[in-house]
Specification:
alpha/beta, Rossmann fold, Oxidized Rhodanese, domain 1, 2 domains, eight-stranded mixed beta sheet, 16 helices
Length: 375
């Protein structure tokens, strides 16, 4: 089908590129791309793919827009706070380019729905921000023979690659066979992220998706691109398929999808208390608990739970001797990841009476004391 007059005007800068032209633009229009995640990475991916004229664009995200998202998630604006991200994303994309068909999925990816959700799409773009979703996306792509355009961000650093065993490259598990233990790796909500960083990595992902649709250029297959924003440096690492990979190797041991959300929850539940249980303990002097805040000083200065002692996780290995192994400690951070990591470390030092506060100070603000600021 030929390009119409509106498309000729809209994509004129593509049409004059010999590598694209009218034939290439029709290939872009014929492509279907699913963005798994409508957050920091999904925002630039969706915006640039829509602007480029991808014909069918899927947005999968179960979350709602939070004010803290707006520092980096440009699909959404201040009036969208509280709305489903997929709804906000659809409106933004349609304002940008009404020619694009937007299909939304207000769902959490899991092992029961992943294959069905990813199967209809030509290209999958991984805009996830957690390990369970990242491994699910990877494994489903391998099983379906779909290209997985990978990106991840953390503080001031980012990564991007193309995982596609069916094209002769590795999958994500070839590099990282198993997810890290629960609580060992903080999320962006815990560790922070420079607001422009997902824009840089996300546009790289969008570029890879467009090259796949066009069938031109050299992709990131067999290469892991690393970006350091503080040093403003790119470097790359050559990566190859691992014959022993548990999902794409010669004798794969993983033949069904794994929902690590369930596995992590089972492990962590026994060591956690809710903020309501923390409040009850604090209101009862006879409980004798001590509350340790393992966040950093800058976070402590923004918001704190009354009576909590600051002992940052970054200093815990040097200062744990300040604590009494015979006492009972409730550990908290922003959302519960760093406190679990602190719990595991202290348990190795012989501490037995430890609990991690589920949801951290964010949950405390939501459920106990709304005057405590959220950040």
């Amino acid at each position: 089908m030929e390009l119409n007059d509106n498309e000729l005007r809209r994509y004129s800068r593509h049409l004059i590129l010999p590598e694209v032209g009218a034939i290439g633009q029709r290939k872009i229009r014929a492509a279907s791309v699913l963005c798994v995640g409508a957050g920091g990475l999904g925002s630039p991916v969706a915006l640039y793919l829509a602007a480029a004229g991808v014909g069918r664009l899927g947005i999968l995200d179960f979350d709602r827009v939070d004010l803290s998202n707006l520092q980096r998630q440009l699909l959404h604006g201040t009036p969208d706070v509280g709305r489903l991200k997929v709804d906000s994303a659809r409106e933004t994309i349609q304002r940008l380019n009404p020619e694009v068909e937007v299909v939304t999925f207000p769902l959490r990816l899991n092992r029961d729905n992943a294959l069905d959700l990813l199967r209809p799409w030509d290209i999958i773009v991984d805009g996830t921000d957690n390990f369970p979703a990242r491994y699910l996306t990877n494994d489903a792509c391998v099983m379906l023979g779909k290209p997985n355009v990978y990106g991840s961000i953390f503080r001031f650093e980012g990564q991007a690659s193309l995982f596609a065993p069916h094209l002769g490259g590795p999958c994500y598990r070839c590099l990282f066979p198993e997810p890290p233990p629960p609580g060992s790796a903080p999320s962006c909500a815990e560790a922070g992220v420079l607001g422009v960083l997902p824009g840089i990595i996300g546009t790289i992902q969008a570029t890879e998706a467009l090259k796949l649709a066009l069938g031109c250029g050299e992709s990131l297959l067999n290469r892991l691109l690393l970006f350091d924003a503080l040093g403003m440096r790119f470097r790359e690492i050559k990566v190859r398929p691992d014959p022993g990979c548990p999902v794409c190797g010669k004798n794969p041991s993983i033949k069904e999808l794994i929902d690590y959300n369930l596995d992590c929850q089972t492990i962590m539940n026994t060591d956690e208390v809710t903020v309501k249980e923390l409040k009850q303990a604090l209101d009862n002097p006879a409980s004798g608990i001590r509350v340790i805040d393992v966040r950093e000083l800058a976070e402590y200065q923004v918001a704190r739970i009354p009576g909590a002692q600051l002992l940052p996780l970054s200093e815990l290995t040097q200062r744990w001797g300040e604590l009494d192994p015979s006492k009972e400690y409730y550990l908290h951070c922003k959302a519960g990841v760093r406190s679990m990591k602190a719990l595991l470390f202290l348990r190795q030092q012989g501490f037995k009476h430890l609990k991690s506060v589920k949801g951290g100070i964010s949950a405390w603000s939501d459920e106990i004391d709304a005057s405590v600021p959220k950040y």
